[in-house]
Amino acid sequence: MIEGARWRTWVFFYGPMALFLLFLLFPFYWMVITSVRPDGELYRPWNSINYNPFWTWKPTWDHIRYLFEETLFASWLWNTTFIAIVSTAISLVCGVFAGYALSRLNFPFAGSLGTGIFVTYLVPQTLLFIPLAEIIRNYRLGDTPWSLILTYPTFLIPFCTWLMMGYFKAVPRELEECARIDGASRWQAMLYIVIPVAIPGILSAGIFAFTLSWNEFIYALVFLSSPEQKTVPVGVTSELIRGDVFFWGPLMAGALLGSIPVAVAYSFFVEHYVAGLTGSVKG
Amino acid sequence: MAIAETQVYMPGAPRPRFRLLEDERWLAFVLLVPTLALLGLFIAYPFVRGILLSVTNSRVGVPGEFVGLANFYKIFNDGIFRTSVYNTFLYTGVTTIFKLALGLWLAMLLNRNFRGKAFTRAFILLPFIIPTVLSTFAWKWMFDPTFSVLNWLLYHLGLITGRINWLGDPDLAMISIIIVNIWRGVPFYAISLLAGLQTISPELGEAAAIDGARPWQRFWYITWPLLLPVTMVVVLFSVIQTFADFQIVYVMTGGGPANATHLFATYAYQIGIGTGLLSEGAAISLAMFPILFLVVIIQLLYIRRVEVR
Amino acid sequence: MGQVVLKGINKFYDSVHAVKNVNLQIRDKEFVVFVGPSGCGKTTTLRMIAGLEAISSGDISIDGNVVNQLAPMDRDIAMVFQNYALYPHMNVYDNMAFGLKMRKFARGEIDQRVREAADILGIGELLRRKPRQLSGGQRQRVALGRAIVRHPRVFLFDEPLSNLDAKLRVQMRVELKKLHLRLGTTAIYVTHDQVEAMTLGDRVVVMKDGVVQQVGEPLELYHQPANKFVAGFLGSPAMNFARVTLTETNGSVVAENSGLRITLPNEAAQRLRGHVGRKVTLGVRPEDLTVADTADLHHPCFDAVIEVVEQLGSEILLDMKVGENAMVACVDPAVRVRVRDKLRIAMRPSRIHVFDAETEAAI
Predict the structure, then answer these.
(1) How confident is the model at residue A213, as a pLDDT?
(2) Which of A25, B63, C71, C206 is most buried, by CB atoms within 10 Å?
(3) Which of A:247-276 have CB within 8 Å of C?
């Protein structure tokens, strides 16, 4: 559309876009720079002279080395990844089945169950963590990865279910009916026909669940106590701070390296992630 | 040719058997059982336990006795609790307004076609993807009063002479956590609203342009009303998450300075887990529930209304 | 009022030359139809006139003023979109009133104009309804109403009838024509349907691959097509084409290929003498072919085998094989023919078209 002079594009588009990108991405740049900055440069007050906080000429691996040698960071990485993968798997299975049932089958209370599952998505973890801590302790799951693997699905399943319902609704009924005429049972039709067609949805739900697991904090904080059991967010928060002293170098290195697995996984599935996000909002 | 001659019988046709899973209702039951079990065990059950906890006076290791609504009276008279309530509403309200405005702006910018659009979109979501605790540490480092890079920037731009005590002053601390929350939430709003924008046919904008509407008018009369359904869903989701937020405050200020930045969640943690007063902690957590319940009802009603149409 | 001039209009999309050097003068009150296959550039040209696309080079003037840089809203035009583009959240009244509201018309004036347009279009009872409660034909009328209330200098139509079912399309065509006769505003109409072009246009512009093939009144294009494309595009069933070689025998020019051998009548022969020895394309419309009887013996004739007989009631379409050419004849319903009949077919001598084999221009 004819909109007027050229300068308008610069002022109204490129300018704000650049500012947004700067605002949203600067903290990551900050993480990277701080992780490789030697201590001497790190702890300089903000108004010292000759101080350029945005760049360093003497990058160092010290902090990262500290992270892996003096702390249990490697265990935390492993724990978090393990927990995320298993919870995601459980949630996907439950979500796919529940989504199929709610969108393709007729049975009493279907509507209310659907609403019920949707509603549980909106009961935040911060409301349940105290009584849950007690329950976890009673089942002797405290301080094990299972305390998280079994509780993470509570906020992952509703989302997966909802997302899969959307995808299943888009699969034409004729496909299933044709399969059943050809001799497949309902179960087989579901497994071999409907679910494969909805694989993009499964990928979307999967990557979304994976990132949500990595992001969870309060359950991990409350249910885990021994350092070797901790997940990355909890470990970084509790073990890299002694009293009031923050070890900023290793802390930022931990933050950076803790973010990388999620970022990498996300980068392979960006389109699916976006589809999952927008599908949940439009559906 | 008579029809009968051409009839062929299917060899070995399956005899009708009673297959349980062919029945829709049984299949549905089997498919839903794992979900219902997990959700029942780890949401419904704790929820009920939470309510029971809040009406006793339990502490860690000491099961308590029934005390009715005593815990609730206690916390309502607690100055810090009242501050948390105020803070939570303020935090939720301010961040939502900014996230919506900035998110909408960014969504409209992204709605054009430009080179590198896919890349930009992918990068923009990073604040939302990266574990909040980790990125909040980066912000904390940026806000640290002694070493803050923001102070450095403002100083070198000539805007300040003394340092800004971002995290040590109660009001500034609130501002800091609000900024971090906005930073994290804008991508979610932007990408979701962008999806909504893309469902609006460009022809509508063209028709409006020919009808004489200037860009601002096109937005107000055409885009905004058509975007409302998506906006409602996004805002309601976000409000619930923000209201129950824990991570940002825990990392940035721990609720301080002097308990000035507590939200429901962090105060519940401090009381319930920190000092071991389980029942009071449970009561604080549950105090969130009426508001959340209201928000959920609004959202369900709104969705119902949209679907009926 | 309502005069539109296109001078040297070109449009480039990156390296694709979508519209090539279009020159056209549209008079006030004229109904001009741009017609052509998809991708021929007609919609792009319309959008450039509307201001929805930037012009790569050339000038567009409305009533003598160059409007290249003007935004759509400042050109005093109204447009009817293929998908109607009705605002879904507003009722019919507000849809029609929107443009006037944006231009700050008084409430009373708006009301008067909307009701007036609604009366003309017969949608008076629908004013309170929302678009989703309307049928396709009703929505189309609302889109028309929205354009009418603005009293613009020029109406632009982008394939407005494409989304309607066949019967409705025929009905709306007549209504549009009546509307134009009544309102008298200049109209520029884009379609891919040659029937709409022929019936609606005062003048028709045929486009292909971004280039204007011919401009003229419908019958002019029909009987004197400038090239093979225009000849084949207008008219249904389409004109028959056959590649032939021209030879001279005993003073007359003969056109022949493996299936037919025709002596061309004198009028055509005069023009074609210079092309003897060359290959050309012969064209003749189905309705100009008849089953030969004694009266037609001196007309050019050829033998054909009937493959399919299509009975339409008002006429009969014969799909024939003429050697290795396939041809269609449109004959009187009284004629008796059967599949596999061998017939002698006569051509009406004054209606034979010849086109150059390479340039496809009419000779």
Answers:
(1) 92
(2) C206
(3) none
